[in-house]
C-alpha cells in the first residue's frame, strides 16, 4: 500500500503540472473552504499538495477494495466505531453523512468490523461507464455492504433503514435537484437525502470522514453525532449536516476532494426552492455569490440594464452585483445601491484585470458568474485570470463560439417590437428565474428637492447626436407658450452650448452629471426632452417625461411607465438610428409645438 500511494503522489505531481485548469478549480475551492484571501505562493503550495494527496487517496481507495482483513487493520484505524454502531445495538438506525475526503472507499470496506450490525448499506450514484460501474459495485458488496443507487428510488432504501441498520450517504455531492444551502458558508446544491432518511426513520445522524495520517495510512473518524433541533424541517436538518461536515473536514482540509467544481454555477443558478430557505438564511453569514455585469458602451443603453440587476439581486439572498463599465458611467453605477463595486474598462493606468485583483476586491471571495452585455472580446480577455467563472451573453457575442458560454441568450429578430429593456430581462428567463416584480422597473429613490427648485425642465440636447435634436426656434416658440418658466437641463459635456441656448431663451440653466439627477428631479417634476440619455435618467427618478423621438423606434426606447408620453413623426427612413440626418426635412423638424403642448 505505501508503495502504491507513493506512485499515486507521483501521478498527482504530473496532474498538477500538466492540468492548469484543475489547478484553477482547486485554487477556487480552497479559497472558499479555507480563506478567500489566500493567493500567490501560499495558495499555490496548498493547491499542489491537495492535488497530490487526492491522487494518492484515489490509488489507495482502489487498493482498499481488495485488502484482506489483516491488511485493512494495518492501514486503517477506526476512531470510536462503537459510537456509530450504538444506534443499531439499541434498535435504531444510524445514518452516516460522509464527505468526499481522504480514502472514503474505506467506509464500504469496513462492514466485517461491525459484528453486531446485521444490515450495513450505502447510497451511491451510478457511473456512466457500465464496466466501471459493475467493478465498483462488486468490490463494495463483496464484504456485505448493500448498495442502493439514487437512480432506483428511495422505497427500498427507506425499508432497509426502518428495519434498523447502518447506512451511509455521500452527503457533500453537488445536486441541482437538492436544496440550495450553505456549505462552508457558500450556497450550493446539496442533497437532502440524509435529512429525509432521518425524518422518515427517526434514527441518529453521524458525520463520518477519513483523513490521511501518513503515506498509505488513514483514520476513519466515527464519533461525531449531529444534533438536530426538535421539530426541525428538511431544510434546517440539511443545513445542520452541512455545518457539521464542514467542521469535520476542516480537521484535514487538504484531504478533501477539491478537484471538481463543487460550487459550480449552472444555467439555473437560482432555482425556485431557494425561496423556502430565505427565512432560515436570514442573518446567516454567507460568502457572496459574486456576479460581474459588463455594461453596454452606450450610456443610454446601459441604464436599461437596471431592472435586470434588481431581478438578479432578488433571485437569491447571497447575490452581489459588480459592474464593469466605461469611465463615463462609473459615477452613475457607484451611486446605484444595486452595485456593490464598479470597475472601468478604459483606464490605461489600472487595467480591468488589475482592478479585479486589488486586495479589497479579491478578499471578498471568488467570482461566480459574468454577464457580458458589452459584447467586447477585450472584456472577456481581462477576465481570464479569475477563471473558472460561468459566462452568459447574447448569442451574437463575437466570442460565443470560441469560448464555452453557459448562457447564450437568443437575439429577437422580427415580430412585434418590444421594449429594449425586455431584451436584458430575457437573461432572467434564460437562466430559469421566473419571478418578475413591478419593483424591478420602479423609479429609484430620489433626494428631497429644495423649496424653490424648478419643477418643469426642457432638455434640448441629445446624446444620440444632432439627428435626434429639435431646432432652437422650436424650443423658443414652445417656451413662449408655457404657463411657467422651465429650466434647461443638460449634461456638463454640453455646458457651452447649453449656456448659450439658455441665455438665448432667457431661462435658467441646470447642469448635472448622470448620478446627480436625483437631486434635481422627482415625481413632482415634468421634463420635455429630446430622445437620449437624459429622459431615461429622469424617468428613473420618477419625473414625467414628454420625449421627442426621431431616429429610434418608440416601442423599443420610450421611457418605461404609463405617466410618460412620446411624440414622433413617422417617415420612410424611420427608424434610422443615425447621429446625423441627410434628409431635406429631418423627422425631428416635423414635430410641432402644438403636439408638445397637447401632451402637457
TrEMBL record:
GO CC field: plasma membrane
Superkingdom of this protein's organism: Bacteria
Subcellular localization: Cell inner membrane
Any one GO biological process: glycolipid biosynthetic process
SUPFAM superfamilies named in the record: UDP-Glycosyltransferase/glycogen phosphorylase
Cell membrane among keywords: yes
GO molecular function: acyltransferase activity
UniProtKB keywords: Acyltransferase, Cell inner membrane, Cell membrane, Membrane, Transferase
UniProt keyword Transmembrane present: no
InterPro entries for this protein: LipA_acyltrans
Pfam families named among the record's database cross-references: Lip_A_acyltrans
Principal place of residence: membrane
Full protein name: Bacterial lipid a biosynthesis acyltransferase
Origin species: Akkermansia glycaniphila
Amino acid at each position: 500500500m505505501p508503495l502504491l500511494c507513493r506512485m499515486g503522489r507521483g501521478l498527482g505531481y504530473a496532474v498538477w503540472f500538466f492540468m492548469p485548469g484543475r489547478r484553477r478549480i482547486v485554487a477556487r475551492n480552497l479559497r472558499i473552504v479555507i480563506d478567500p484571501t489566500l493567493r500567490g505562493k501560499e495558495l499555490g503550495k496548498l493547491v499542489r499538495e491537495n492535488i497530490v494527496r487526492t491522487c494518492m487517496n484515489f490509488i489507495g481507495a482502489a487498493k482498499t477494495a481488495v485488502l484482506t482483513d489483516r491488511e485493512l487493520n494495518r492501514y486503517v484505524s477506526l476512531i470510536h466505531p462503537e459510537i456509530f454502531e450504538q444506534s443499531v445495538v439499541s434498535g435504531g438506525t444510524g445514518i452516516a453523512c460522509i464527505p468526499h475526503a481522504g480514502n472514503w472507499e474505506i467506509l464500504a470496506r469496513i462492514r466485517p468490523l461491525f459484528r453486531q450490525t446485521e444490515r450495513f448499506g450505502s447510497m451511491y450514484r451510478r457511473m456512466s461507464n457500465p464496466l466501471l460501474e459493475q467493478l465498483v459495485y462488486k468490490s463494495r458488496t463483496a464484504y456485505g455492504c448493500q448498495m442502493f443507487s439514487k437512480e432506483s428510488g428511495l422505497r427500498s432504501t427507506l425499508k432497509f433503514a426502518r428495519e434498523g441498520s447502518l447506512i451511509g450517504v455521500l452527503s457533500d455531492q453537488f445536486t441541482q435537484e437538492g436544496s440550495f444551502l450553505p456549505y462552508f458558508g457558500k450556497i450550493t446544491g446539496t442533497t437532502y437525502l440524509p435529512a429525509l432518511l432521518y425524518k422518515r426513520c427517526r434514527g441518529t445522524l453521524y458525520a463520518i470522514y477519513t483523513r490521511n495520517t501518513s503515506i498509505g495510512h488513514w483514520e476513519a473518524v466515527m464519533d461525531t453525532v449531529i444534533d438536530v433541533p426538535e421539530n426541525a424541517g428538511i431544510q434546517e436538518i440539511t443545513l445542520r449536516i452541512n455545518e457539521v461536515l464542514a467542521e469535520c473536514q476542516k480537521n484535514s482540509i487538504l484531504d478533501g476532494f477539491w478537484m471538481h467544481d463543487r460550487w459550480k454555477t449552472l444555467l439555473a443558478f437560482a432555482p425556485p426552492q431557494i425561496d423556502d430557505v430565505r427565512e432560515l438564511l436570514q442573518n446567516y453569514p454567507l460568502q457572496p455569490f459574486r456576479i460581474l455585469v459588463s455594461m453596454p458602451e452606450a450610456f443610454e443603453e446601459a441604464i436599461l440594464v437596471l431592472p435586470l440587476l434588481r431581478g438578479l439581486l432578488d433571485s437569491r439572498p447571497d447575490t452581489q452585483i459588480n459592474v464593469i463599465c466605461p469611465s463615463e458611467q462609473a459615477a452613475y453605477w457607484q451611486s446605484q445601491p444595486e452595485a456593490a463595486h464598479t470597475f472601468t474598462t478604459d483606464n490605461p493606468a489600472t487595467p480591468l484585470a488589475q482592478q479585479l485583483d486589488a486586495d479589497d476586491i479579491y478578499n471578498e471571495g471568488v467570482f461566480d458568474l459574468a454577464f457580458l452585455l458589452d459584447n467586447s472580446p477585450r472584456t472577456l480577455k481581462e477576465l481570464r485570470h479569475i477563471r473558472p467563472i460561468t459566462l452568459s451573453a447574447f448569442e451574437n457575442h463575437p466570442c460565443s463560439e470560441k469560448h464555452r458560454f453557459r448562457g447564450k441568450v437568443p437575439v429577437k429578430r422580427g415580430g412585434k417590437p418590444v421594449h429594449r429593456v425586455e431584451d436584458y430581462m430575457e437573461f432572467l428567463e434564460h437562466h430559469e428565474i421566473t419571478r418578475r416584480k413591478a419593483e424591478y422597473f420602479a423609479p429609484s429613490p430620489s433626494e428631497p428637492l429644495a423649496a424653490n427648485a424648478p419643477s418643469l425642465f426642457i432638455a434640448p440636447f441629445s446624446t444620440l447626436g444632432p439627428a435626434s435634436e429639435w431646432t432652437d426656434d422650436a424650443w423658443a416658440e414652445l417656451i413662449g407658450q408655457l404657463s411657467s418658466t422651465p429650466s434647461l437641463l443638460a449634461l456638463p459635456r454640453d455646458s457651452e452650448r447649453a449656456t448659450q441656448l439658455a441665455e438665448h431663451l432667457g431661462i435658467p440653466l441646470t447642469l448635472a452629471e448622470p448620478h446627480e439627477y436625483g437631486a434635481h428631479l422627482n415625481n413632482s417634476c415634468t421634463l420635455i426632452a429630446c430622445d437620449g440619455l437624459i429622459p431615461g435618467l429622469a424617468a428613473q427618478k420618477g419625473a414625467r417625461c414628454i420625449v421627442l423621438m426621431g431616429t429610434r423606434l418608440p416601442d423599443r426606447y420610450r421611457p418605461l411607465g404609463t405617466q410618460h408620453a412620446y411624440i414622433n413623426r413617422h417617415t420612410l427612413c424611420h427608424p434610422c438610428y443615425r447621429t446625423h440626418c441627410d434628409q431635406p426635412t429631418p423627422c425631428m423638424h416635423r414635430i410641432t409645438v402644438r403636439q408638445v403642448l397637447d401632451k402637457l
